[in-house]
Write a structure and sequence with these properties.
With 288 residues, the protein is an all-alpha fold. The chain folds into two domains: 38 residues, no CATH class; 210 residues, Orthogonal Bundle (MetI-like fold), CATH 1.10.3720.10. Helix 4 packs across helix 15 and helix 14 packs antiparallel against helix 15. The chain is flat, with a radius of gyration of 24 Å. It starts with 5 loop residues before the first helix and ends in a 6-residue tail after the last helix. 25% of the residues are buried.
Length: 288
């Protein structure tokens, strides 16, 4: 039996855990690997004899690399226009959802008023209401307001907060010491000053978590543009990919190239913000 030093034993244990986790993650990563692999393949590799022989791990390696799929994908649809529309919509909805949710969450977490618990329960209960139930009346309301064909049906709801974000931020705000706010009130600070200068600077991780959730939700949103956007000049990337599939369904390699470009920002954003994201999730719910 090999005797390992304590430091070596810890290193070996961590290495073993990471290897096991990578193996367990492999089935979930296969669709992503297949998408990226297909985006670099030519037509002969997709429909030739090698494709007919069935799936193997070796078939994931494109031979040779076909880099033309990416320029072709960006030429087939107005990718730059869709990207600009999506980024603009993401920025607006992220700011609106995070700011409005933080306002409401601060009220629930730090201010006492009559009926607070009942209102909080009603707010949380809306999370259990499927979107399919309210789809038709909401669409009728949007048509009546004259917002059909604009981004307002996706922007305005974000300005009134999200039940999920309000819940997360409420739980986080409750973990902050009340003594801090009381000391600020003694010094003459208003609730607005306490909220903007004390609570928000201490809540960057929770706010970043909500912003990341909202960004991913808006970036991946297909249902909203499908329901309310009828002008091709206003399409987002998610809806634009569907139009690519409808018009050029047989071009699987360029479609996978476009899908890879669409997915890449989300993956990069998560890896850049994963520490803040995990910290924001872990520190919510610490105090009821």
């Amino acid at each position: 039996m090999i005797n390992l030093r304590p430091k070596q034993a810890v290193t070996l244990q961590k290495l073993t855990i990471h290897v096991v986790l990578l193996i367990l993650c492999l089935p979930a990563m296969l669709p992503l690997l297949w998408m990226v692999s297909t985006s670099f393949k030519g037509t002969d590799q997709l429909y030739g004899s090698s494709a007919a022989s069935g799936f193997t791990f070796a078939s994931l390696i494109p031979r040779p690399l076909n880099l033309e799929n990416y320029p072709e994908a960006m030429r087939t649809v107005p990718f730059a226009l869709y990207l600009r529309n999506t980024v603009a919509l993401c920025i607006v909805t992220v700011v609106a959802a995070v700011v409005s949710s933080a306002f409401v969450a601060y009220g629930f977490a730090r201010i006492e008023f009559k009926g607070k618990n009942t209102m909080f329960l009603l707010m949380i209960s809306t999370m259990a209401l499927p979107g399919q139930v309210t789809m038709i009346p909401v669409f009728a309301l949007i048509r009546a307001l004259g917002w059909y064909g604009t981004y307002l049906p996706m922007i305005v709801p974000a300005c009134f907060g999200s039940a999920f974000y309000i819940f997360l931020l409420t739980q986080f705000f409750k973990t902050l010491p009340q003594e801090m706010s009381e000391a600020a009130r003694v010094d003459g600070a208003t609730e607005w000053t306490i909220f903007t200068r004390l609570v928000l600077p201490l809540s960057k991780s929770a706010l970043a978590t909500c912003a990341l959730f909202q960004f991913m939700g808006t970036w991946n949103d297909f249902f909203g543009p499908l329901m309310y956007i009828n002008d091709p000049a206003k399409y987002t990337l998610a809806y634009g990919l569907q139009q690519f599939l409808s018009l050029h369904g047989g071009k699987w390699a360029p479609l996978m190239a476009a899908s890879t470009i669409f997915t890449l920002p989300i993956i990069v954003l998560f890896f850049l913000a994963q520490r803040t994201f995990i910290q924001g999730i872990a520190t919510t719910g610490g105090k009821s």
